[in-house]
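Here is a tokenized protein:
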Amino acid sequence: MSYIFFTFAVIFAFVLLFSVIKIVPQGREFTVERFGRYTKTLKPGISILTPFVERIGRRMNMMEQVLDVPQQEVITKDNAMVKVDAIVFIQVMDASAAAYRVENLPYAITQLCSTNLRTVVGSMDLDEVLFQRDNINSRLLTVIDAATEPWGVKVNRIEIKDLTPPVDITNAMARQMKAERERRAVITEAEGEKQAAIARAEGAKQSAILQSEGRKEAAFRDAEAREREAEAEAKATAMVSEAIARGDVNAINYFVAQKYVEAFAELARNPTAKTVIVPAEMSGLVGTIAGIGEMVGLARDQQGERRAQPAPAPRNAPTRTPRGGGSVPSTS
């Protein structure tokens, strides 16, 4: 009999011990009731209750929770039917208020979000609903957070999860988007053609400028070449004149042979001439060429002497011998 009593006492002691010692996990808070009345809130850790007097009332989740707002059909301000659903992020800040001021806290917040979602979306046009989700979220957050504050709940975020317009409106939006993109494509193509035309005009302008600069440079160089050629011709004429003034026969032969050769070359290049008359006295031409050779050597010698001493002033040149069909007579 004593053994049975001892066993019963041990069991009763364990039951009593587990009923008065409470361990609250992290992220949770327990409310304590004394004879059914709320007295305090147990924080995470170990706590001891008064046996047979106090008990755990509600076990509240203090972590952030996500509630799903069911999809519902809402009529917008311009009489368009849209399907809307959302998600809301809440966190219990006051365990006692959340436990004793509202029954079934998740259901209450879900219904509150649904009604306010209808109110906010119904006061906007369809275009505003489709393109101003951030505005809808902020308005819902302000209203619902203010409504849940007496319950000890903080609403952190509300997000529109899905928003589905009617099928006909969706098709119209697709056509509108296609037309807008085609318009942008036409504008972009026109801009490209405009830029290409401008680039081609700039290229033609630069080409004309470069061609003009090239012609200017070529004309300048041609003029410079003619000027140098004239200077060389003048120097050659002056040298021949000096030689003639000194009585050098080879100078006269050189001058006459030069004109003779030029006239014969022009005659040979004439495209209308069918017959070229060759002078009979070729020995005179050979003698003239020999005179030209001697004149070139003489000119070289004169250039060396002119570098060493000043040249004498030239005298009046004799009258040139006219050209004829025969050879030029040489004077000894």
User: Anything to note?
Assistant: Residues 167-245 form the longest helix (79 residues). The CA atoms of residues 218 and 224 lie 10 Å apart. Residues 311-332 have pLDDT under 50 and may be disordered. The first strand starts at residue 21 and ends at 24.
